[in-house]
Each structure stands twice: as structure tokens, then as C-alpha cells.
Write a structure and sequence with these properties.
Elements lengths: L4 H10 L5 E3 L4 H11 L5 E3 L12 H10 L7 E4 L2 H10 L2 E5 L6 H5 L5 E3 L5 H5 L1
Parallel strand pairs: 1-2, 3-4, 4-5
Length: about 130
């Protein structure tokens, strides 16, 4: 787990902040990650749950539906350009996360609302 992420997840857990994972990975893989790290995730939208996949907004729209929240009440954190593009297309505020990404150059040129370098910066956006 990235440095500072445990503290972020603890605050999310303590304040019951609704969280979803939207991924182009298969559900069994995501479920293993969620279980391994005990992530406070209520919903998963995986590769097979909504088509077309990112960068199309279908997966993000499915997550909004599952969460029962409008796009203007949600923040999407992503480390790939397809995350930013899908969020924007769904009307969700997009945050580019630069730790661990292999797409730094492409991500810098994407249309994100905010950019963060460290996981703890998530706290400044969710408060």
C-alpha cells in the first residue's frame, strides 16, 4: 500500500464516505485486492459489469447508479488518462493521481480537475 493511503482509508471508514472501484480489470481480481487490503468499498464496477469500458463513461455512470449519487456529489481519483476521460464524460470531477502511474506524461496532458502527488492529498479534496 502506498505511503499515507492507510490513513486516508481510515478516515473514509470512520466518516462512512461512500466509495466505489471502477476498473477495467475482472471482478475476481478487484475483490481479492479489496479483501487483502480491507478496503472500505461498497460497490465494484469491473470489466464485465458495464460496457463499453473506460474511457467510455458507461462504467462511471453504473457506479453513480449503484451509489445513488449525482455526478456533482462525486470525485473520481484515477492514475490513467482513461480514468480522467471517463469521469469527465460522466460529469464527475476528476483527480489525476501521480503516485505509481506509468502514464505521467499523458496524465499531465489530460483534462483533470485537480492533480495530486501523494495519497494524503486525497484528504484535502474529500473534506
Amino acid at each position: 500500500m502506498y505511503d499515507g493511503m492507510a490513513e486516508v482509508l481510515d478516515i473514509i471508514r470512520r466518516h462512512n464516505i461512500p466509495c466505489s472501484i471502477v476498473s477495467t480489470s475482472p471482478r475476481p481480481y478487484i475483490e481479492k485486492i479489496v479483501a487483502h487490503y480491507n478496503l472500505p468499498i461498497q460497490h465494484i464496477v469491473s470489466y464485465h459489469d458495464a460496457k463499453p469500458i473506460k474511457p467510455h463513461p458507461a462504467q462511471m455512470l453504473k457506479a453513480l447508479e449503484m451509489m445513488g449519487l449525482p455526478a456533482n456529489k462525486v470525485i473520481s481519483f484515477g492514475d490513467r488518462v482513461i480514468d480522467i476521460d471517463a469521469s469527465n464524460a460522466a460529469g464527475i470531477e476528476s483527480v489525476a493521481c501521480f503516485w505509481g502511474t506509468k502514464e505521467k506524461g499523458e496524465l499531465l496532458r489530460s483534462q483533470y480537475s485537480h492533480a495530486i502527488i501523494y495519497p494524503k492529498e486525497i484528504l484535502t479534496l474529500i473534506r
